[in-house]
């Protein structure tokens, strides 16, 4: 049995060399970016949103043993309007993906997405299934992927720390949600004869028309 | 019949007990740290524990059981500096989601397969961590890893990173021995037994050959083989 | 006539599907090539008739009821199905249809709809088969009479067969797709229907070894995605309504209901129904009837279930379920997998109780192969299955209380206990949830001394104490009682008719537990009871779970004691193998999982892969009765009643 591994956690505000030695315990200087990111990364609220097996491990992460609230990711909100983070925990099916995209569109910015487990990353063991989407990143942008089927609760916590690192690196000057421009609303996919990604509708129309001309479908990629 | 409200009070008693125990259990060891039976994460997860159960993950972590399985890795024989895998393909056959791809090495002249994989891919985005590959490998060449901290940013090209190639899959057998001590001991014992068997067989053969020439001197030489 | 199947003597040869590929098979019969299904292959043996089947045959005549290949009887004239079903229910007392599925015998050109009828008093199920000719292409087949009016439990199962095979059931009250959506192109479980990522009929694929080089599935297919469209499909001029028909019957009495369908490029108003006049004329305090969609993203639905409820004020007047948001195509993938491949997939059915599912599957395959696990493996199986039951009930009760509004405290307490059991699972099997522990003829690993000590401490000390604590916390709690007693009442006869199984049925006073009524494993060696309660409401469904945990604990304790006499390390009967061949045949076997009866209906053609892999899922079939339980209650109770059924979406949608 291995001993407890003690790793120092990175300090949120490391001492700045510009501060004199004797004042370091009393004074720290920071940038607005750091303060802003510190606040954000320590108060991330995930959405209460489970799809499949990974959701059970997600609940286990939020439960007493791992206690997500230690990181300030205080409580899971069922409403997308109150959530900062979507954990796509489980297999994304074609029938479910319009709802997921709609929920993502309803989340206020800044918003983050974690693809938890093999299924959410790329379809997982069910990838070959006819009702399974090969990864949520085909529809919404993902910030952190986790490998595993299902990932252990610790693996999910690890991805949270990775996401915190990412948030730390963001700058107020460059973040897209304070820039003027279009909202990146993702068109909700349509459930037709099969799942239709509306961003690719024109391409699908052309290919299907070409297939109608030549009834034998090509099998090579 | 019980008085209305006693059930609620009884239930609240349970939560109160939990509340007190939460602090009492750890307080015991705060004064006398050496009295703690086990390191903190283990103690908190032991069936005897009544108090707090939280394991403060990045700082402290639970020990993983030997059998724990995450994604597979290939064992590198550190003595010979080559992989133990012979590219027999059993792992690719038993893999339920078919996430293992093996390219065999071919002899450049005879075009016969050489028992060594030229390339070995495991698509960890499909892998279901079932452990069949390790369980059915006859050469102890593929094992299940304990490293679960596998998160990636999309900038790290997850789909290429998450498809593990041979360079990423190969890990030395010392690492395998460190995470699977019991399995490693069994492997060593198996190997020793096999060598003893080989040796015994060789000795028997040598003996037979030493004994044979006298009676078989008149017989055709083919029977000696 | 096309649908008239020939006499049993002549058609016996056609019933056995030939091997999927001409591989060197262990059984010569399976590998023999056949022409049109009437070739020289060895005839599948006809089933021997049980007394009940003989009575059925006597009553309807041999021209109607004939012995079917391998198992059960074949109904020659499908139009007489309702008559036969009524006779089975009323005269032979087969009071529920426990399993209903279909098999596509593509070589022989027909679909076979398979019914398993069950007596609530116990015994083997009765298998009845009906054949319909295969249609051309994507067309619907000829209809089969629905038995939903006779057996309410057939409702969802018939819809599933319709969804997967395109076999319509005439007389079904609400025949719509259930797992997929209206408008989906094709009938997925037909053998000639291939999905976009289709690579071959059987695993292992040669592209992995010896052939292959790594290639993503996306790179292989024309759409670069897991989709297929009919030729000439134009998404820009296509108006989809995946919920077509859903609101039709619910819309009555809803004034001016507009059903608006939104999709990627806009919205279309498809129906305007309802009669506001009738309501306005009522004298009493008027409340509006509205339709509310709960889910698939809703904190109370235990996953991605969608409940469409019609509310009169706060009272539920109608309810419909929309399933399939987690439909992961277990059955299609399972027919491609080898026999061994399917074991870890069964873990992911009901992902709370992985090892209970494994047992069901392994048991069915062992039944077909005719092998028995070793003594020690039997004990290990019971140990794991009963610990699984305990942890599942901890989870179920925790989240039932969550649904009641006891937000998180009980759930967190019980998840802590569950985690300790999962630690034991992880230490033995290697994973917390997806244990992949059972093998054909045994289990994968034996316990070590340390693991044995760990489980003994749990079974003899920790869990008994915690179950007492659970009862102290909840059983007498007046709020729990006020919210649950009398809520979600469904009497025993209705429960049976709905094919309800598991704790919910036993809470209605029916002592139906597969461990007793159709014993498997070594449950006959343990001293335990099947607890029965008579309230048939949410409170008794809670209490029965507590009682069952105590009984399971008794089994675990006895199991640990008796296990000492078995040989350490003797966990696998025969040689460990990965390339099993299962003799051609059919089998249905079931186990009692914490949710109810989990059955597997497997058809083998003698090859390496199941020809048909059907999962009789308890969560799915238990949901059929939800409507009757919920209607008349407040919407807040609907959430609680759903919680008391303890469904897991992985098993509902499969």
Structure notes:
The complex is a heterotrimer of chains A (221), B (225) and C (654). With 221 residues, chain A is of the alpha/beta class. Chain A has helices spanning 32-41, 53-62, 97-106, 117-122, 153-169, 201-213; strands spanning 85-89, 112-116, 144-146, 190-191, 195-196. In chain A, the strands form two sheets. In chain A, strands 1-2-3 form a three-stranded parallel beta sheet. Chain A has a two-stranded antiparallel sheet with strand order 4-5. In chain A, α1 runs antiparallel to α5 and α2 packs across α5 (153-169). Chain B has 225 residues and is of the alpha+beta class. Chain B has two domains: 13-63, no CATH class; 72-186, Alpha-Beta Plaits (2-Layer Sandwich), CATH 3.30.70.3270. In chain B, 39% of the residues lie in helices and 16% in strands. In chain B, strands 1, 2, 5 and 8 form a four-stranded mixed beta sheet that branches. Chain B has a three-stranded antiparallel beta sheet with strand order 3-4-7. The longest helix of chain B has 31 residues, at 181-211. Chain B is elongated, with a radius of gyration of 29 Å. Chain C has 654 residues and is of the alpha+beta class. Chain C folds into three domains: 8-170, Beta Polymerase, domain 2; 235-322, no CATH class; 353-577 and 635-646, Cytochrome-c3 Hydrogenase, chain B (Orthogonal Bundle), CATH 1.10.645.10. Chain C is built from 22 helices and 17 strands. Chain C has helices at 8-15, 28-31, 51-60, 81-90, 154-165, 217-220, 276-280, 330-336, 342-347, 354-369, 375-404, 409-429, 449-474, 478-484, 492-497, 503-506, 514-517, 538-563, 618-622, 626-630, 635-645, 649-653, and strands at residues 65-67, 73-75, 96-105, 110-118, 126-133, 144-145, 169-170, 257-263, 266-273, 289-294, 306-312, 315-322, 438-439, 442-443, 585-593, 596-604, 610-616. In chain C, α11 runs antiparallel to α12 (409-429) and α13 (449-474) packs antiparallel against α18. Chain C is globular and about 65 Å long. The two termini of chain C are 37 Å apart. Classes of the chains: A alpha/beta (221), B alpha+beta (225), C alpha+beta (654). Chains in contact: A-B, A-C, B-C. Chains A and C meet through α2, α3, β4, β5 and α6 of A and α6, α8, α12 and α22 of C.
């Amino acid at each position: 049995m291995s001993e407890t591994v003690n790793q120092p956690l990175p300090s949120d505000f490391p001492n700045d060399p510009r501060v004199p030695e004797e004042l370091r315990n009393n004074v720290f200087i920071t940038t607005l970016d750091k303060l802003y990111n510190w606040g954000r990364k320590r108060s991330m609220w995930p959405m209460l949103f489970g799809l499949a097996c990974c959701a059970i491990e997600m609940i286990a992460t939020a439960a007493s043993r791992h206690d997500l609230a230690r990181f300030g990711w205080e409580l899971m909100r069922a409403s997308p309007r109150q959530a900062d983070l979507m954990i796509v925990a489980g297999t994304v099916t074609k029938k479910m993906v319009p709802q997921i995209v709609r929920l993502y569109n309803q989340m206020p910015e800044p918003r983050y997405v974690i693809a938890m487990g093999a299924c959410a990353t790329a379809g997982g063991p069910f990838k070959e299934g006819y009702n399974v989407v090969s990864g949520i990143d085909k529809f919404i942008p993902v910030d952190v992927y986790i490998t595993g089927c299902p990932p252990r609760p610790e693996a999910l916590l690890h991805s949270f720390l990775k996401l915190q690192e990412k948030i730390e690196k963001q700058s107020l000057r460059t973040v897209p949600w304070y820039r003027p421009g279009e909202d990146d609303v993702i068109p909700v996919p349509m459930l037709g004869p099969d799942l239709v990604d509306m961003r690719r509708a024109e391409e699908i129309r052309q290919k299907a028309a070409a297939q109608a001309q030549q009834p034998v479908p090509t099998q090579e990629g | 019949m019980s008085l209305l409200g006693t059930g609620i009070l009884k239930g609240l008693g349970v939560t109160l007990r939990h509340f007190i125990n939460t602090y009492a259990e750890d307080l015991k060891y705060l004064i006398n740290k050496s009295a703690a039976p086990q390191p903190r994460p283990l103690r908190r997860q032991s069936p005897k524990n009544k108090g707090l159960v939280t394991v403060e993950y990045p700082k402290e972590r639970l020990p993983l059981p030997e059998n724990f399985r995450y994604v597979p890795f290939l064992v590198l024989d550190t003595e010979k500096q080559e992989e133990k895998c012979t590219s027999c393909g059993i792992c690719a056959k038993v893999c339920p989601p078919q996430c293992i791809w093996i390219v065999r090495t071919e002899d450049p002249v005879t075009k016969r397969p050489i028992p060594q994989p030229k390339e070995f891919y495991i698509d960890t985005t499909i892998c279901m961590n079932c452990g069949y590959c390790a369980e059915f490998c006859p050469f102890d060449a593929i094992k299940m890893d304990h490293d679960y901290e596998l998160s990636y940013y999309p900038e790290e090209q997850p789909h290429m990173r998450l498809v593990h190639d041979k360079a990423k899959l190969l890990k030395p057998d010392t690492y395998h021995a460190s995470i699977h001590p019991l399995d490693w001991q069994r492997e060593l014992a198996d190997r020793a037994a096999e060598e003893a068997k080989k040796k015994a067989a060789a000795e028997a053969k040598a003996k037979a050959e030493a004994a044979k020439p006298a009676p078989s001197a008149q017989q055709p030489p083919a029977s000696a083989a | 006539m096309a649908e008239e199947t020939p006499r049993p003597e002549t058609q016996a040869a056609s019933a056995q599907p030939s091997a999927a590929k001409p591989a060197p098979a262990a059984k010569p019969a399976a590998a023999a090539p056949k022409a049109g299904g009437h070739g020289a292959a060895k005839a599948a043996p006809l089933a021997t008739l049980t007394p009940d089947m003989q009575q059925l045959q006597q009553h309807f005549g041999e021209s109607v009821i004939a012995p079917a290949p391998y198992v059960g009887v074949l109904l020659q004239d499908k139009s007489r199905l309702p008559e036969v079903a009524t006779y089975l229910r009323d005269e032979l007392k087969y009071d529920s249809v426990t399993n209903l599925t279909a098999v596509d015998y593509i070589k022989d050109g027909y679909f076979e709809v398979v019914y398993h009828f069950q007596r609530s008093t116990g015994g083997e199920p009765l298998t009845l088969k009906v054949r319909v000719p295969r249609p051309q292409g994507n067309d619907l087949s000829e209809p089969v009479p629905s038995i939903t009016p006779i057996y309410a439990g057939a409702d969802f199962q018939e819809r599933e067969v319709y969804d997967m095979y395109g076999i319509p059931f005439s007389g079904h009250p609400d025949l719509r797709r259930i797992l997929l959506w209206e408008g989906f192109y094709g009938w997925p479980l037909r053998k000639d229907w291939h999905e976009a990522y289709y690579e071959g009929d059987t695993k292992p694929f040669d592209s992995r070894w010896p052939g292959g080089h790594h290639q993503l599935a996306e790179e292989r297919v024309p759409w670069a995605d897991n989709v297929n469209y009919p030729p000439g499909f134009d998404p820009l001029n296509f108006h989809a309504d995946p919920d077509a028909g859903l609101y039709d019957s619910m819309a009555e009495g809803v004034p001016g209901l507009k059903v608006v369908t939104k999709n990627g490029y806009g919205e279309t108003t498809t129906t305007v129904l309802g009669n506001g006049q009738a309501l306005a004329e009522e004298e009493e305090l008027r409340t509006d009837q509205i339709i509310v969609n709960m889910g698939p993203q809703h904190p109370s639905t235990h996953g991605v279930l969608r409940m469409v409820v019609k509310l009169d004020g706060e009272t539920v007047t109608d309810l419909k379920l929309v399933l399939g948001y987690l439909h992961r195509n277990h059955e299609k993938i399972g027919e491609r997998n080898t026999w061994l491949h399917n074991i870890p997939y069964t873990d992911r059915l009901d992902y709370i109780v992985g090892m209970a599912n494994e047992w069901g599957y392994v048991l069915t395959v062992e039944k077909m192969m005719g092998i028995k696990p070793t003594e020690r493996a039997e004990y290990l199986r019971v140990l794991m299955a009963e610990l699984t039951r305990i942890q599942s009930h901890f989870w179920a009760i925790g989240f039932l209380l969550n649904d009641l509004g006891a937000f998180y405290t009980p759930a967190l307490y019980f998840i802590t206990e569950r985690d300790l059991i999962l630690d034991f699972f992880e230490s033995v099997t290697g994973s917390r949830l997806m244990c992949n522990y059972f093998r054909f003829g045994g289990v994968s690993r034996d316990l070590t001394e340390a693991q044995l000590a760990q489980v003994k401490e749990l079974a003899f000390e920790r869990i008994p104490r915690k179950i007492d604590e659970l009862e102290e916390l909840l059983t007498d709690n007046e709020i729990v009682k006020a919210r649950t007693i009398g809520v979600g009442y469904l009497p025993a006869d209705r429960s049976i008719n709905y094919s309800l199984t598991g704790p919910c049925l036993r809470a209605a006073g029916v002592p139906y537990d597969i461990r007793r009524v159709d014993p498997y494993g070594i449950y006959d060696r343990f001293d335990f009871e099947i607890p029965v309660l008579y309230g048939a409401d949410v409170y008794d469904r809670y209490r029965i779970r507590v009682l069952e945990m105590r009984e399971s604990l008794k089994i675990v304790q006895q199991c640990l004691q008796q296990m000492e006499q078995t040989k350490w390390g003797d966990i696998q009967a025969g040689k460990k193998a990965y390339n099993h061949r299962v003799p051609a045949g059919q089998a249905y076997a079931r186990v009692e999982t914490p949710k109810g009866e989990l059955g597997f209906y497997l058809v083998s053609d003698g090859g390496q892969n199941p020809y048909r892999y059907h999962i009789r899922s308890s969560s799915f079939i238990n949901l059929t009765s939800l409507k009757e339980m919920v209607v008349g209650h407040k919407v807040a109770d609907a959430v609680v009643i759903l919680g008391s059924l303890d469904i897991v979406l992985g098993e509902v949608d499969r």
